[in-house]
């Protein structure tokens, strides 16, 4: 080897050794797996990879999305400078220009149409600090009542159902570590294997230990394959199923009378109603046989411990709140909550699906899970914020309803942070028109998303690699996401963006923060004494203790792992059972000769939500390059649909074109389409605008549609 070659290899080795490690958490689901970005410099080229890092929840595991997350975060398309619409084109401008324009426009609109003419649309993918600040920004900087967020489309019914039943909403009422020891579980409308993959070992362990697993899903999925019994019901019929199970339990004397008497209210009403039902109707509505109903009811009631998990399959229904409550009736009637290896798990979706719903970006909510309609709560927060209670706006409307308000000219402007509603809302043809109509739209995003493309101003935000802050994972565990990767271009953290806009609006004194931690210090106080009490949690503790579970009222108390051991959170300490009428199913669209198929929607392993991030990641995009429709081959034949061909899917709301994929295991009356794609592949063009009356959740999981082969 020549001297020159030797030198080359020596240099290369040295360079390769220059390795940097950045700690962070996955930007995707509610597991919030801890991870590290490894930057290796080889000669002058940088190479990146992501590896898992040990922690109590995911124990170092990552799924395919997490492993490839850096591909979108380091993508060239990341926004690096503000953009402003000039002559109908988005062009780069300075922060100064962007902020000045926002100030002028916001002030002009509020002057002309009133404070409530501006609306705010937030997200559960931002940190607790940012979610908290966004609520404060709407109420204090803009003084508008119109703020809501994408969690309304996600966990609103689970949250409302749990609040109505238990008086408190925290996703899991038990510790993750209890799952392996439970004896029986019902997985209702959850696809954990694809949506929270790193949680699977807890369930696999339970199975090894002999737990009986019942899955409720109209489709076969990687999750239902884990089950001992798969109840493949008609979409949207879960209330009939849960009520049928309760009827068997009551009739066979399998309920826990002592628990019902000591710890619950209203059982007698529930019992009267349930006993008045007939099985014929239940079998008819659900398509589930009497044998399967019996098997489920007997195993669940007879085992000494048991858990019920729900996710969007039963929750994203226009009777979602009631559906959740029907399943909670089963837990309460059998006394399977507040004791070891038992309880309710509403499996949170987004990275901060839990925390972001606690600190005040929901239309009716103030920090710490306080209510904007409660005088004492209003007084408390007004004092923390240093404003008068009477200047605190009242309750606004839900996410989708804000677009209806735009259409009715009640809202003139919108500020969207970290969401892509043009893809994710129901009836998206309408939503897109509303966003085109709005007179001034500001979007803060990492990319020029389909929504950002409609904006008048686009603000570049920082990602999970750069932005430090806390997230509350699906257990209710608050975690500190460390993030120190260098900021790209002129992007700013979401909290900085909020502070800067507040400043130009003359509200600087309420938004004086120099770090995420300084916002968290205020959040602690704002949440103090509320249901979601974070007062005892500090950044130091989070570092030392690997996260703390809320409620945590003081620095001396440990977090709370198992909830409701001695009492529920309602006044009087009892859980409230509720009569949940099967008739609520009739609220939904029925199949007809025009629209003969049920359409349900959901996710695939390799893509995330509107796909804005995962479609930019070559390794993930390669796994599913386009939208598809899962259909039974017999149904396909009936409609003249061939395998792997383009199909036009039509509902009352619109049409889309997707490719056919056959599945022998899906119900013959049902098609499934994931929602990760845009434009003509966006299934939300088909979903209707009807909302759950209690929580305003859209019915993403049940529409009716028709299909035909698509010829160019
Ligand atoms: N890979 C991936 N993981 C994700 C996400 C993602 O986009 N991609 N998103 C994250 C977010 S924000 C969320 S909210 C969660 C969502 O997590 P999940 O709720 O588990 O996911 P979905 O696929 O929406 O729906 C779950 C299942 O409900 C079934 N289902 C449909 N209709 C019905 C019905 O009427 N009754 C019943 N019982 N089941 C029905 C579907 O067939 C589907 O298998 O996942 C999180 N994790
Ligand atoms: N048909 C159908 N529709 C559904 C669902 C369904 O199951 N079926 N599920 C619903 C559910 S559960 C959810 S949660 C919603 C989600 O709906 P969305 O919130 O619209 O989905 P995302 O793709 O997460 O959009 C996030 C946007 O923020 C950007 N972003 C990412 N990180 C950051 C950040 O740190 N800061 C800022 N400023 N921007 C960032 C991304 O680039 C992206 O454009 O969709 C709902 N829509
Ligand atoms: S997507 Fe969820 S399970 Fe997968 S690595 Fe990220 S946080 Fe973990
Ligand atoms: Mo979600």
UniProtKB/TrEMBL annotation:
Top-level taxon in the UniProt lineage: Bacteria
Matches recorded under Gene3D superfamilies: 2.40.40.20, 3.40.50.740, ADC-like domains, Dimethylsulfoxide Reductase, domain 2
GO cellular component: membrane
Residues covered by the 4Fe-4S Mo/W bis-MGD-type domain: 19-77
InterPro entries the UniProt entry points to: Asp_de-COase-like_dom_sf (IPR009010), MoPterin_dinucl-bd_dom (IPR006657), Mopterin_OxRdtase (IPR006656), Mopterin_OxRdtase_4Fe-4S_dom (IPR006963), Mopterin_OxRdtase_prok_CS (IPR006655), Prok_molybdopt-oxidoreductase (IPR050123)
The entry's keywords: 4Fe-4S, Iron, Iron-sulfur, Metal-binding
MF annotations from Gene Ontology: 4 iron, 4 sulfur cluster binding; metal ion binding; molybdopterin cofactor binding; NADH dehydrogenase activity
GO biological process: respiratory electron transport chain
TM region(s), chain numbering: none
Pfam assignment, any one: Molybdop_Fe4S4
PROSITE patterns: 4FE4S_MOW_BIS_MGD, MOLYBDOPTERIN_PROK_2
Ranges in coiled-coil conformation: none
Cofactor(s) the protein requires to work: Mo-bis(molybdopterin guanine dinucleotide)
Protein name from the UniProt record: Assimilatory nitrate reductase catalytic subunit
Organism: Gracilibacillus ureilyticus
């Amino acid at each position: 080897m020549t001297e020159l070659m030797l030198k080359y290899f020596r240099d290369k080795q040295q360079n390769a050794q220059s390795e940097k490690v950045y700690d962070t958490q996955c930007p995707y689901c509610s597991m919030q797996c801890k991870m590290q970005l490894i930057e290796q410099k080889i000669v002058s080229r940088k190479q990146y990879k992501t590896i898992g890092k040990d922690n109590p929840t995911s124990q170092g595991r990552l799924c395919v999305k997490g492993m490839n997350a850096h591909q979108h975060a380091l993508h060239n398309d990341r926004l690096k400078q503000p953009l402003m619409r000039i002559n109908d084109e988005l062009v780069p401008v300075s922060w100064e220009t962007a902020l000045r324009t926002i100030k002028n426009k916001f002030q002009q609109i509020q002057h002309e149409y009133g404070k409530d003419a501006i609306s705010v649309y937030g997200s559960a993918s931002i940190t607790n600090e940012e979610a908290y600040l966004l609520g404060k920004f709407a109420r204090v900087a803009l003084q508008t009542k119109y703020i809501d967020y994408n969690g309304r489309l996600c966990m609103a019914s689970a949250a409302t159902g749990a609040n109505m039943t238990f008086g408190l909403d925290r996703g899991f009422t038990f510790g993750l570590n209890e799952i392996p020891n439970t004896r029986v579980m019902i997985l209702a409308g959850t696809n954990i294997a694809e949506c929270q993959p790193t949680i699977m070992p807890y369930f696999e362990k339970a199975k090894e230990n002999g737990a009986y697993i019942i899955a409720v899903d109209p489709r076969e999925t990687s999750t239902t394959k884990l089950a001992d019994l798969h109840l493949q019901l008609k979409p949207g019929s879960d209330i009939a199923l849960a009520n049928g199970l309760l009827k068997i339990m009551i009739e066979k004397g399998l309920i826990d009378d002592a628990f019902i008497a000591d710890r619950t209210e209203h059982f007698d009403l529930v019992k009267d109603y349930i006993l008045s039902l007939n099985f014929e109707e239940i079998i008819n509505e659900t398509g589930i046989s009497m044998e399967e109903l019996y098997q489920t009811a007997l195993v669940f009631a007879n085992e000494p411990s048991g858990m019920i998990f729900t996710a969007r399959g039963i929750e994203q229904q226009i009777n979602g709140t009631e559906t959740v409550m029907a399943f909670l009736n089963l837990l309460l009637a059998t006394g399977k909550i507040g004791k070891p290896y038992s309880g309710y798990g509403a499996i949170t979706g987004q990275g901060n699906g839990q925390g972001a719903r606690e600190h005040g970006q929901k239309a009716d909510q103030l920090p710490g899970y306080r209510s904007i309609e409660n005088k004492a709560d209003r007084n408390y927060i007004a004092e923390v914020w240093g404003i008068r209670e009477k200047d605190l706006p009242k309750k606004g409307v839900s996410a989708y309803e804000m677009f209806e308000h735009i259409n009715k000219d009640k809202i003139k402007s919108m500020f969207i942070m970290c969401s892509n509603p043009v893809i994710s809302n129901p009836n998206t043809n309408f939503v897109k028109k509303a966003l085109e109509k709005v007179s001034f739209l500001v979007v803060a995003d990492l990319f020029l998303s389909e929504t950002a493309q409609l904006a008048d101003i686009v603000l570049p935000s920082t990602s999970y690699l750069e932005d430090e802050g806390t997230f509350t994972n699906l257990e209710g565990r608050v975690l500190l996401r460390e993030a120190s990767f260098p900021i790209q271009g002129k992007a700013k953290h979401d909290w900085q963006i909020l502070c800067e806009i507040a400043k130009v609006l003359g509200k600087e004194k309420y938004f004086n923060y120099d770090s995420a931690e300084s916002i968290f210090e205020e959040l602690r106080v704002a949440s103090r004494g509320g249901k979601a009490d974070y007062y005892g949690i500090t950044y130091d503790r989070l570092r030392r203790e690997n996260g703390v579970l809320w409620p945590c009222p003081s620095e001396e108390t440990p977090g709370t792992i198992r909830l409701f051991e001695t009492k529920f959170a309602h006044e009087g300490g009892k859980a409230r059972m509720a009569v949940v009428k099967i008739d609520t199913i009739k609220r939904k669209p029925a199949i007809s000769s025009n629209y003969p198929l049920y359409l349900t929607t959901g996710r695939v392993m390799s893509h995330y939500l509107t796909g804005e991030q995962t479609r930019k990641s070559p390794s993930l995009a390669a796994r599913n390059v386009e939208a598809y429709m899962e259909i039974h081959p017999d149904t396909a034949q009936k409609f003249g649909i061939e395998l792997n061909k383009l199909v036009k899917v039509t509902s009352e709301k619109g049409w889309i074109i997707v490719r056919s994929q056959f599945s022998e295991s899906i119900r013959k009356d049902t098609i499934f389409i994931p929602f990760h794609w845009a434009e003509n592949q966006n299934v939300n063009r088909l979903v209707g605008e009807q909302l759950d009356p209690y929580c305003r959740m859209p019915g993403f999981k049940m529409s009716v549609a028709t299909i035909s082969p698509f010829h160019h």
